Amino acid sequence: ELVRQGEALKRTEQMVDKMDQDLKTSQRHINSIKSVFGGLVNYFKPKPPESKPEQNGTPEYNANSRLKEAMMSSKEQESKYQESHPNLRRLDNSGLVDSISSVQRDAYPKNQHLRAYHQKIDNNLDEMSSGLSRLKNLALGLQTEIEEQDDVLDRLTKKVETLDVNIASTDKRVRQL
């Protein structure tokens, strides 16, 4: 959702820039209409640079890399979790006892049932740690994206305020004609 909002903000900022450029062009035309001298000034005054056209009408928006990485790693971890979750995968307990290494066997009690219970708790704690790490990375990515979008909103607010003043001024000049 944040990436979609970032794309919308980027398009809005580009539209405001285009409106500002169009307003400058209209002010040049008003000067030409207003007087002969204004037309001469516009003739010798350099034209404002044209902005490059957008590709297929949709500007590119790149979410910050931290958010992209967090989303990708989150999807990878989610798929790994779904593969290992007992309710989401086929039951195959034959390799459970074989997968415990000799080092891990020494760390657990000698009672087989108690050892299996401790192993299960450790596996659950590992999964919880992995999930919390995933949430932390997503939260940091979201924070960075929000901060970047906040900067875009501040820029956009300043541009819109300036554009509003220029539109009011141009409107007043047109009404005087």
TrEMBL record:
PROSITE patterns per UniProt: T_SNARE
Subcellular location: Cell projection, Cilium membrane; Cytoplasmic vesicle, Autophagosome membrane
One GO cellular component term noted in the UniProt record for this chain: ciliary membrane
Recorded superkingdom: Eukaryota
Coiled coil: 139-173
A GO BP annotation: synaptic vesicle fusion to presynaptic active zone membrane
Domain T-SNARE coiled-coil homology span(s) in chain numbering: 1-33, 115-177
InterPro entries cross-referenced by the UniProt entry: T_SNARE_dom
Keyword list, A-Z: Coiled coil
GO MF terms held by the record: SNAP receptor activity; syntaxin binding
Region (Disordered) residue spans: 42-95
Family to which this protein belongs: Belongs to the SNAP-25 family.
Biological function: SNAREs, soluble N-ethylmaleimide-sensitive factor-attachment protein receptors, are essential proteins for fusion of cellular membranes. SNAREs localized on opposing membranes assemble to form a trans-SNARE complex, an extended, parallel four alpha-helical bundle that drives membrane fusion. SNAP29 is a SNARE involved in autophagy through the direct control of autophagosome membrane fusion with the lysososome membrane. Also plays a role in ciliogenesis by regulating membrane fusions.
Assembly, per entry: Forms a SNARE complex, composed of VAMP8, SNAP29 and STX17, involved in fusion of autophagosome with lysosome. Interacts with multiple syntaxins including STX6. Interacts with EIPR1. Interacts with STX17; this interaction is increased in the absence of TMEM39A.
Protein name: Synaptosomal-associated protein 29
